[in-house]
Amino acid sequence: MSLEQLKRDFDRDGYVVVRGFLSREELEELRIRAEGCLGEARRSEEYPGVVKNLNRIDPWFEDQLQRGKQAELISALLEDDLEPASAGCFERIPGETSGIKPHIDASGHRRKGATVWIALDRADRENGCLFYVKGTHRQDLPSVVGLEGFSAESEEAVAVEVEPGDATIHNSRTVHWSEANRSQRPRQAITYFYWAASTAGGTDG
Ligand SMILES: O=C(O)CCC(=O)C(=O)O
Fold first, then answer.
1. Residue having the nearest C-alpha atom to atom 7 of ligand 1
2. Best mutation site among 191, 193, 194, 195 for ligand 1, i.e. most ligand atoms within 8 A of its Cβ?
3. Terminal CA-CA length for the chain
4. Which residues of 137-150 are buried (b: 16+ CB within 10 A; e: fewer)?
5. Phi, psi dihedrals of residue 27, rounded to the nearest 5°
6. How is the beta sheet containing 100-103 ordered, strand by strand?
7. Cα separation, 87 vs 41, whole angstroms
8. Which of 32, 94, 145, 167 is the most buried (most CB within 10 A)?
């Protein structure tokens, strides 16, 4: 898909899906680097599948956050310079009973930014794929996890089923969530989160 088409979709829907974003070799390297970090990472009780700040654990992730091929694309989609914020790993754990409730990534007065979410595994409805709600990036929603009124049945909700190496990029104001992994299959993804440089100050999301 051309950059023009991606930008049109991103502006209209608040997200885009980039199939085959990583080559087989790039995907393998990402997988190995992620595995190397996860053992030593701290996990929260509430979200045991989430590891934040991989870029503080392994300089390779810092380099990817700063210079990975997603950075140029996200800068073009936001039409802004980027302030790289963090790299994370999001795992939906097989057999878990809950996922991550509807939320946006924007926080406080920092509204403009974007996240690339790169699938390490196939993600589908059964193992907790991402859901986006088209067009919500144009609403002014609060930054809370558990936004009311959004579900898989919402009119503009889309289940984004992807293959390993595919990526999705969402606006920091686009409502998204994932449901529990009801399968016995893994579902891991790596994210890189960026603020637009024009959104000054605040926390690092
Ligand atoms: O991967 C997931 O399960 C959720 C990802 C997410 O909430 C995010 O990237 O902000």
1. 177
2. 191
3. 30
4. beeebebeeebeeb
5. -65, -45
6. 100-103, 176-178, 130-133, 157-160
7. 13
8. 167
What is the rounded CA–CA span in Å between residue 184 and residue 154? 27
Q: What is the pLDDT of residues 65-82, one digit of tens each?
A: 999 999 999 999 999 999
Structure tokens at 97: 């009973």
Decide: 22 and 177 in contact? Cβ < 8 Å: no
d(CA 31, CA 57): 15
Confidence of residue 204 (pLDDT cuts 50, 70, 90): very low
* Residue-level length of the chain: 205
- What single DSSP character describes residue 137? G
Determine whether the shortest distance from the Cβ of 191 to ligand 1 is under 6 A.
yes
Asked whether 117 lines ligand 1 (CB < 6 A), one says yes
pLDDT tens profile 1-36: 899 999 999 999 999 999 999 999 999 999 999 999
* Tokens read off for 67: 């210079």
Using the structure block, give the residue that is written with the tokens 């300089």.
59
- Token digits of residue 161: 């089923």
Contacts for 195 with CB less than 8 Å, ≥ 6 apart: 82, 83, 85, 110, 112, 113, 172, 202, 204, 205
- Domains of the chain in start order, with CATH, are 3-191 (2.60.120.620)
Helix (H) or strand (E) run with residue 72 in it? helix 69-78
